[in-house]
Amino acid sequence: MDFLTTALLLLVGTGAGVALANALRNRSGITDVRRDSVILLERIEKVFKVVMAEGYFSEIYNYQDQKKILYLLNDPKKAMVIAKSKVLVGFDFAKVRFRAAENGEKTLVIEAFPEPEVLSIDTDYKFYDIQAGYLNHFSGEDYTKILDEAKQAMNDRAMQSDLPKIANNQIQYMMYQLASSMGWQLQLPEAEQRQLEALKAKTEAEASLPKLLKTGTPT
């Protein structure tokens, strides 16, 4: 057997092996999936943000887009998104303006305090019932728009809930306790000061209730 014949036999055998392997792979449903990702760090910023309230929300978001074909026929596309989110509400302390009292007393005067805000939304999205039109198909921009609108709806829902109120109460009482532990008084803007006084009275009443119950229990 000469060299040419040997080479031809090797080529035929290799081709048959590749064909057999492809046939077996297609039959068994094995696919070769490759994924590549590139992570770029754009910038690092120093922040002083404090989380004071955490809430969990579920939302069903329905998206529908109507498209006219030749100004006569409707070609709708729609999708349903179920979103489950963890929302963190707190404060950006970079926006706080404060000073020490001018009379020399150990009083921390808060001149301006920011409103509570959503610091982060961690959301898990799942798409259901995706129905594209005959010509009105979904694009990458459509999916991005749907997710942005669903996230904004979750943000609005969180700010309309009790989370901002809870965060306000938490931060005011935390600052009061921190100042008191160092022998300082805390002076907030008028509206916030009234809320703090009411919260202090409520907390003190709740703390003294077990003592009153214990004292009033017959022996």
TrEMBL record:
Origin: domain of life: Bacteria
Pfam families documented for this protein: DUF4230
InterPro entries: DUF4230
Protein name: DUF4230 domain-containing protein
Species of provenance: Spirosoma utsteinense
